[in-house]
């Protein structure tokens, strides 16, 4: 979920910014209604040919160009702020990017609109609209923004991409991480505000919506995209199709796997973000931070992330352990086989050695808290993990507060009425691929219309008449290149460790994004 090493391009280009105030009597939060456009400005205009030249200026841009294809549309990027809510329903403000294609007839006039949800970031000022990286620390935002612009906007999609509450331009002092109700509300509010922005007089802009609404996102954004599809459907708003990528949809199962020792890469960061989020929303995850976090980390941890300080610095200062989520001492004798796990369920064997990295003597989470979750998982088991049931449903009535919060935000509680493609890679060490398999199995048991939902593993061999054969072939080449480079550098494991380090964010992500574009092209 963490976008370490996403495609990073620095555009050697200064962009003129024009600030346009929305027509409104509101100022800040003094007059509140959700989706109100507060402010917008154009941050970049770029022709298709200039975008192509810029992508060709370095190797990462050239790789993105190969995956995305040559830009065929000019793009205009607007940064805007809008009113929304926080995790406890409190009024706040968020920001987003509006990417508008332009140029020839195939890029202007009525165009499909896409909601894009970004992945996990720890940078407080994350801004997906800042693709020129005017903020040197905004590598995550610039990298993901460039990919979204190249894969979607430059190919003719109107794109609305929220930065989320708690990030750029937002006064909220925390981020409502994996809060399905809040994050979907935030996305829908960004859509409302973007429509206000597009309705403002602009003689130069001939692009408008054509009535098709797509939803996509990756990692955390995969979860947010599916939650947004659910919320739009519940509100009676038609979604043409959605294509979430590598998201933790089955949150209850994912959390139980984590507590039972399947410690994913980035787990210490994700744990701080999600517990802070749920504590703000529900107020019962702990009485004080020291009930959950070890004493070495508890002071100030509720305000630690997101931050303007780099994770390397926070790790170096001892604010957070880099990998050790749990103690290497079992919380009770009966859980020794889970500390670390000897035979983890639903996980590929290749990931088992990684799980051991999540245990140590300087761990983040108190053993007593882990024990409470383990005991509750036995008393109130999830329907998919560790032992799958026919329904594949979340735990019916967990008693432990954090497990209750995960169940509350689990996306196994609805059935889509429009097409969904769940994309990912089966070796993902950050967001386990079983999330997609569990969600699909839940829908099947809930009698979703046949063929309406599907799962794509980009890390698999193409089948006969496979519509994603090119995506799978491209992924295989990228994966092989990483492994070969590692072997040349002295790796003795065939490059597996190197592949796993970049698997989620660097090689699965762009191919799932291109797969989403291909999927949407069917409608």
From TrEMBL:
One of the GO BP terms on file: lipid catabolic process
Gene Ontology molecular function terms on file: triacylglycerol lipase activity
Keywords tagged on the record: Hydrolase, Signal
Species in which this protein is naturally found: Paraburkholderia guartelaensis
Keyword tRNA processing appears in the UniProt entry: no
Highest taxon in the source lineage: Bacteria
Residues spanning the signal sequence: 1-22
InterPro entries: AB_hydrolase_fold (IPR029058), Lipase_secreted (IPR005152)
Stored Gene3D superfamilies: alpha/beta hydrolase
The protein, known as: Alpha/beta hydrolase
């Amino acid at each position: 979920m963490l976008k370490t090493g996403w495609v990073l391009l620095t555009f050697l280009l200064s962009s003129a910014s024009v600030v346009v105030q929305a027509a409104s009597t509101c100022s800040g939060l003094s007059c509140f209604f959700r989706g109100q456009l507060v402010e917008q400005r154009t941050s970049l205009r770029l022709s298709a040919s200039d975008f192509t030249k810029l992508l060709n200026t370095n190797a990462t841009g050239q790789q993105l160009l190969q995956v995305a294809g040559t830009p065929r549309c000019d793009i205009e990027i607007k940064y805007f702020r809008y009113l929304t809510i926080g995790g406890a329903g409190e009024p706040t403000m968020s920001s987003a990017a509006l990417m508008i294609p332009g140029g020839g007839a195939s890029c202007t006039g009525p165009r499909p609109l896409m909601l894009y949800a970004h992945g996990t970031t720890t940078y407080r000022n994350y801004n997906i609209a800042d693709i020129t990286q005017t903020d040197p620390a905004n590598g995550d935002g610039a990298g993901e923004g460039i990919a979204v612009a190249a894969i979607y906007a430059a190919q003719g999609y109107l794109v609305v991409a929220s930065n989320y509450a708690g990030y750029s331009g937002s006064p909220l002092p925390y981020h409502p991480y994996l809060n399905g109700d809040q994050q979907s509300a935030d996305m829908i509010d960004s859509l409302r505000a973007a429509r206000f922005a597009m309705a403002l007089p602009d003689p130069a802009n001939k692009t408008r919506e054509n009535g098709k609404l797509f939803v996509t996102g990756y990692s955390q954004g995969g979860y947010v995209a599916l939650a947004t599809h659910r919320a739009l459907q519940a509100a009676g708003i038609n979604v043409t199709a959605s294509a979430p990528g590598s998201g933790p949809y089955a949150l209850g199962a994912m959390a139980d796997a984590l507590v039972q020792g399947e410690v994913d890469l980035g787990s210490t960061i994700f744990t701080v973000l999600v517990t802070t989020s749920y504590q703000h929303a529900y107020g019962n995850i702990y009485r004080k931070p020291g009930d959950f976090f070890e004493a070495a980390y508890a002071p100030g941890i509720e305000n630690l992330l997101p931050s303007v300080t780099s994770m390397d610095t926070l790790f170096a200062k001892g604010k957070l352990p880099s990998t050790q989520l749990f103690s290497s001492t079992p919380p009770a004798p009966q859980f020794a086989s889970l500390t670390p796990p000897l035979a983890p369920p639903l996980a590929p064997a290749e990931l088992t050695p990684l799980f051991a990295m999540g245990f140590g003597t300087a761990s983040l989470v108190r053993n007593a808290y882990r024990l409470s979750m383990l005991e509750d998982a036995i008393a109130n088991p999830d329907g998919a993990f560790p032992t799958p049931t026919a329904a594949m449903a979340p735990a019916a009535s967990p008693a432990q507060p954090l497990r209750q919060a995960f169940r509350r935000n689990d996306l196994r509680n609805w059935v889509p009425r429009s097409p969904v493609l769940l994309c990912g890679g089966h070796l993902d060490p950050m967001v386990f691929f079983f999330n997609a398999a569990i969600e699909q199995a839940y829908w099947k048991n809930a009698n979703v219309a046949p063929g309406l939902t599907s799962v794509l593993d980009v890390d698999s061999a193409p089948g006969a008449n496979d519509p994603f054969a090119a995506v799978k072939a491209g992924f295989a080449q990228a994966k092989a290149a990483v492994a070969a480079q590692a072997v040349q550098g002295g790796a003795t494991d065939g490059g597996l460790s190197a592949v796993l380090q970049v698997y989620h964010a660097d090689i699965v992500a762009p191919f799932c994004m291109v797969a989403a574009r291909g999927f949407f092209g069917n409608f």
